[in-house]
Specification:
eight-stranded mixed β-barrel; binds magnesium ion; 9 strands; globular; binds ligand C2E; 44% helix; 11 helices; Diguanylate cyclase (GGDEF) domain-containing protein
């Protein structure tokens, strides 16, 4: 208590210093209390089937309320929350909230949740199981997105946990493919169902023809490996039609829809064209 009060005062002390340092410490203080003060919120971004444009589901994206009616983006606070060791608790909240929301939707749409590496050090399988049990959401509707940063630490333990999660019926998604090392060996070694190609790849599309060739190759490779493939960051009609022609199964991006609060997502579902047969429904 005394320690945390001491840190809170530091924020005041640092006003006028290097702006970045100040923001960082302000964020640390906000993050320490964010779960208690209910400052976190999930927004939901739609994913559409490329071929039919039908709504398949949403990705849950974490937001931190800034106290002035705005939001702080996860790119700014997740790394700090990780340093502080808070991501397992935050991640548990995200899983519970996302599953509860999806269980209330009038259609059996999927919900994707991003995981941080630290969550694999705690008992992730139990946390996921309990989020499903508490919400009543069918495991087949939950997707867990992970990035390659996860595999650097303890690949064997991660692989074991992914297999246990898949045994529950949950799907596992490789996120941000095309950034970092994007090693193909991860795709062999881990039981992925889906590959999300990072939006930076589609942003480069207009720059040269070879980018298009590579993106077509990634789609073909995914097909060969029996992975569904998602095009992220689709903002323009040109990107959309390219992704469709290149064989991408699903599209996500501002052109389809921006991340939106829970109530807006509900309205979106009520007016959207929802796929009558969902792609994973016939899977075990
Ligand atoms: P991500 O999982 O790759 O999520 C996609 C990000 O791209 C989101 O940013 C989304 O708003 C943004 N995006 C989607 N379509 C477009 C587009 O057409 N154009 C542009 N310019 N951007 C688009 P956001 O919400 O800021 O999230 C950033 C990252 O933070 C996420 O990347 C994810 O890695 C992480 N994140 C978000 N929520 C959570 C969470 O609950 N837990 C953890 N551990 N990480 C999270
Ligand atoms: Mg993601
Ligand atoms: Mg992504
Ligand atoms: Mg990304």
């Amino acid at each position: 208590r005394a320690k945390s009060a001491g840190r809170d005062q530091m924020v005041v002390f640092e006003v006028g210093m290097d702006g970045e340092l100040k923001t960082r410490n302000t964020l640390r203080v906000m993050l320490r209390h964010a779960l208690e003060t209910e400052a976190f919120e999930l927004h939901y971004q739609p994913l559409h089937e490329a071929e039919t444009n039908a709504l398949l589901g949403f990705e849950a994206l974490l937001r931190l309320q800034d106290g002035e009616g705005g939001y702080i983006s996860p790119g700014k606070f997740i790394p700090i929350a990780e340093e502080m060791g808070l991501t397992p608790r935050i991640g548990q909240w995200v899983l519970n909230e996302a599953c509860r929301t999806a269980a209330n939707w009038p259609q059996k749409l999927s919900i994707a949740v991003n995981l941080s590496p630290q969550q694999f050090r705690e008992d992730l399988v139990t946390v996921v199981e309990s989020a499903l049990a508490l919400s009543g959401l069918a495991a087949e509707r939950l997707e867990l997105e992970i990035t390659e940063s996860l595999f650097i630490a303890e690949p064997q333990s991660v692989a074991d946990q992914l297999h246990r999660l898949k045994a529950l019926g949950v799907r596992v998604v490789m996120d941000d493919f095309g950034t970092g090392y994007s090693s193909l060996s991860y795709l062999w070694k881990f039981p992925f169902d889906k590959l999300k190609v990072d939006r930076s790849c589609f942003m480069s599309l207009a720059e040269s023809e070879s980018v298009g060739e590579v993106l077509r190759t990634i789609s073909a490779m995914s097909g060969a490996m029996n992975l569904r493939v998602v095009a992220e960051g689709i903002e323009t009609e040109m990107q959309r039609s390219f992704a469709c022609q290149a064989g991408y199964d699903e599209l996500q991006g501002f052109l389809c829809g921006r991340p939106m609060p829970r109530e807006a997502a509900m309205q979106y579902i009520l007016t959207a064209n929802v796929a009558s047969e969902r792609p994973h429904e016939d899977l075990p």
